[in-house]
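Support reply, case 0932

Customer input (verbatim):
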Amino acid sequence: MANISVLLCLIITILVASGFANGSGYQPKEKVGVYELKKGDLSVKFTNWGATIISLILPDKNGKLADVVLGYDSVNEYKNDTTYFGAIVGRVANRIGGAQFTLNGTHYKLVANEGKNMLHGGLRGFSDVVWKVKKYKNEGHAPSIVFTYHSADGEQGFPGDVIATVSYSLIGDKQLSVKMKAKALNKPTPVNLAQHTYWNLGGHNSGDILSQHIQIFASQITPVDSSLIPTGKFASVKGTPYDFLKPHVVGSRINKLNITNGYDINYVLDGPAGNKLKLAAVVHDSKSGRMLELSTNEPGMQFYTGNYVEDVKGKGGFVYQPHAALCLETQGFPDAVNHPNFPSTIVTPTKPYRHYMLLKFSTTA
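Our regenerated output:
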């Protein structure tokens, strides 16, 4: 009898780890493919595994083309990825302290996947599922692709069914529009999606990003504890290594961030809240001349310098190391479900989720 009990416990543990016991048993119906959008000399490739950006190729100041996002040679490699290269992360991006929260008097225990906390939606978040290709048009003045995913009630512990949609479009001159939307079908639930591309404007295989310049339009950050969970307070960036209100070299003060070995913090973006776009960040690589301007309607942006990327074999066999790229993850504030003073990330059947990003690429001499 004791042996049977041990066996049952083992089976339950395996089921929980794989997601079956919390309602997220994964049986993908859609095939995994690769899709390309191209306009002028800008081309972007995606896979419906995680609604992921797998490459973005554009010219430098001399017209030389390069892929400026980290990733892998094959789609199958993304299925075993632990870095979230290029993916849409959710149902709730970033961290939830203690992998739990209370909503309308009901306590929800989530699937922890970073110690006792939840990161980027749990063991199988939106980055590790197959999205349906709802629309694909690689022609005309605005080539676009639309991915959609039905997240079931109880998935990774979250309440309610959610339909998430991500639209990528090439518009104007070297501009990528990203629209993330979600609708709660039957219960209030937190939703906070983020686009987790790793950018290196010098080229994915050009080395680190420490000599590139960045400007972040944020006067405050949300400080974190030793587990990178927000304390609930706000702190001014003035006089700290987090101050990028004026352009600075990424690596100029990074050695002062010993605990995280780099930047991994949520910035409170300046500018109005709501659906209007505001400038969040500008990145410039002087060697290639490439520049990226990012605008969003979200209140926050996680600036992450790839601190935990180590010995990752990527495209063409190039091995990525710490600081090989940077992430600009526009988002609601991390752990907002446990901090009433943060902007709410709760979505209801009558209050949908809308998250917009606009990435403008250019070159300077």
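We compared this against your earlier run and they match. Two observations from our side: DSSP finds two helices and 28 strands in the chain. The first strand starts at residue 34 and ends at 39. Please reopen the case if you see a mismatch on your end.
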